[in-house]
Amino acid sequence: MLKLRFTNYKLECGTDEAGRGCLAGPVTAAAVLLPDNFNLDLLNDSKQLSEKTRDKLKPIIEDLAISFSITHLDPIIIDEINILNASIQAMQESIMKLNPTPLYIIVDGNRFKPLNDIPYSTIIKGDSKYMSIAAASVLAKTYRDAYMDKIHEEFPMYNWKQNKGYPTKEHREAIKKYGTTKYHRMTFRLLKEE
Q: Would you call 40 exposed, middle or buried from its count of C-beta atoms within 10 A (0-12, 13-18, 19+)?
């Protein structure tokens, strides 16, 4: 059973990202502020949920949240500042878009950087412990998947609709055959060493 709060702060937001390990596409973060009476039985870490369940939860989370926001950071930024820094920046940008401003931040994982003196805690596997992080993980994943579906239309040969930019055998074969696109992360190892 997921917990609603990590602290006693009413305005505690959860944040998470999706797409860190991908070879193409943005890293996408979400931040969510949930009300005291929030309860959603199906909610869990997005990786534990089917696509159908995530798509069902997305509008419910958006409807019930006090505030939520999404940030996509493009491969060009990922290549410039590295994936860890890009993940943190995407989460921070999402938090800054929340209204009201949160008084406490809980972050999935073990790395974050101070943001405007707002106290925070990093929580390993936080998306399977706290509702706001789980909600953020569902939003980050669904928005990123929709983005990958959209750019799939532009470059169908990579089958991003299916692999979402992750390093599948098929995705790597396509890179080998067709080369890279503006959506590929050039600092990642796009092809396995032969």
A: middle
H/E run at residue 146: helix 131-154
Residue 83 CA to residue 62 CA, distance in Å, equals 27
Q: State the sign of the Cα–Cα–Cα–Cα dihedral 51, 110, 103, 19.
A: negative
pTM of the model: 0.96
pLDDT in tens, 51-96: 999 999 999 999 999 999 999 999 999 999 999 999 999 999 999 9
CB–CB of 68/6 below 8 Å? no
For residue range 128-176, list pLDDT tens digits in order.
Answer: 999 999 999 999 999 999 999 999 999 999 999 999 999 999 999 999 9
SS3 16: strand
Three-state SS at 105: strand
Residues ≥6 apart with Cβ < 8 Å to 178: 157, 158
Question: Quick one: how many helices (H) and strands (E) in the chain?
Answer: 6, 5
CA distances to 140, 144, 177, 187 from 157, rounded to whole Å, are: 25, 19, 10, 21
